[in-house]
Amino acid sequence: xxxxxxxxxxxxxxxCICPAVVFASLPGDMYLAAKNxxxxxxxxxxxxxxxxxxxxSDGYTLLSSACVGGQLSVVRLLQRQPHLHRNPRDWAGxxxxxxxxxxxxxxxxxxxxxxxxxxxxxxxxxxxxxETALDLAIINNHADVESVLxxxxxxxxxxGGNNGNxxxxxxxxxxxxxxxxxxxxxxxxxxxxxxxxxxxCGHSLCTSCITETLNHGPLKCPFCRSPHVIDVRFAAEVPVxxxxxxxxxxxxx
Length: 253
Known about the structure:
Elements: H1 28-36, H2 39-47, H3 62-69, H4 72-79, H5 96-103, H6 106-114, H7 133-139, H8 143-149, E1 196-198, E2 204-206, H9 207-214, H10 242-251
Antiparallel strand pairs: 1-2
């Protein structure tokens, strides 16, 4: 679905009217996984073919749960999936954006607003108490969130609805490679703690994730499980992925 400007198709500029969620279709442990930021478990749940829009007994989806917990990496992963619905409502009529605003998670609110997606965000939706996300930010004294919501400019999808370098989870092992983002933590590569480094198998991780992996034993690739051919003690000993790093350096990230 492509969003068009200039009045060519005003219907496509309207927020997505998401279908009602099926209550009690999301296991309680997956609600906690999303809320607590267990990125690997959420990814595995999706890889196994489960419904990304399933909801628990209160109507919380993976996205709304991640927004409650302020789990930016989980929200980023979910928003890269084309079948995600971003305006589902729970028992009180609250949406994921409302929860992020209510809890004061400004970075999550920015991610929801700035990410192009086929499901167009409804920033003016009202819950059962006639409150919008902005209202909830004001009520709970989250001035930073209030500022973000008062200056909303939703992005447009490119022709054909392709969001660029998406990482799609359609079925196990069906991915589109991300070039400038660590595929473990889903944070953007940078020149410091997220500098891209390449393992002997050819997969790349950021410096921080390599350090975390080394804390649990010898360095192995989290994707193909191949051991790094050279015994290393520190992430800095793993070669930099200069192809990606060169672009980052030019961009001044």
